[in-house]
Amino acid sequence: MRKGLEMAQRIFFRLSDDPNNEHALWSGAITVPVSLGKTEARKAVAKHLNRRKLPSRTLVVTETELYHRQWTEAEIRAKQSKTLHQLKASLANYEFCDLKKGSRNLVFSSGDPDAEVMIIGEAPGREEDIQGAPFVGRAGRLLDKMLKPIGLTRNKDQLNDNLINTAYICNVIPWRPPHNRDPNTDEIEMMLPFLKRHISLIEPKIIVALGNISCRALIGQTGITKLRGNWFDFDKIPLMPMCHPAYLLRNNLAKKDAWSDLLKIKSKLEDMA
Asked: What fold, for 81-272?
């Protein structure tokens, strides 16, 4: 580091008189030296905005403080949620995830809350964002077709002699990322307390993790083509990684592996019966 060059940090500010407060989490952000204290940081924001003084209720936080607030708030809200309805409301009222701003709907879940199998995808796509439910597009239709041969359905009303068990479906991320990009590490970690609470409320016998994002969140590993077909544990619940149906739509050869994974899930359910 060159002499005199000081380490920098980002600080975020939310103006109490910002007319966009209802639509934006933060009014803006600037980069300042790490050594700057709270008072100096507020002065730096005022200078950046060409204001003599900031409104008294303006919130100014460092990037580190912001991350701590985000994670702590998620932990508190998740722990306070005693039912699925409360958990959905907690997510809807959580204001720290930027993905929420660009989404039409909160995509919470689909299927039977009493299901023995919980299927966890990555994040909503365009159709899911529009309809407010997971796996309703092409990938969702393929998923439903994949489940039926092993006796699974997300629709409790469809249970019969062939469809003998139900499934419950959600995503790691409940809001659609812009342009269907992958969720980043901060977004995954921010949503993890809610996801863990979701799992504890459902109490599934088996978890199916669809794709790399789900595997990263639940078992801390990626590389789905190597992980798939192997059993892992999440809080003592058997977990099976599988390729995401969207991947299978693009790679027909991978469907054979997916069928093998489904048969392992069916066998595990039978062993648990």
From this structure: Uracil-DNA Glycosylase, subunit E (3.40.470)
| Coil, helix or strand at residue 97 | coil
Q: How far is Cα 163 from Cα 153, in angstroms, rounded to an integer?
A: 6
Which pairs count as long-range contacts for 37-43, CB under 8 Å and 24+ apart, including other chains? Answer: 41/11
Listed in sequence order, the DSSP H helices in 58-137 are: 63-80, 84-92, 126-131
Q: Which of 229, 241, 231, 224 is nearest to 272 (CA)?
A: 231
Q: What is the pTM of this model?
A: 0.82
Q: Residues 6 or more apart from 69 whose CB is under 8 A from it?
A: 61, 96
Rounded to whole angstroms, the Cα distance separating 113 from 269 reads 17
pLDDT tens across 137-178, in order? 999 999 999 999 999 999 999 999 999 999 999 999 999 999
Where are the chain's structural domains?
A: 8-18+25-67, 81-272
pLDDT digits (tens, 9 = 90+) for 204-217: 999 999 999 999 99
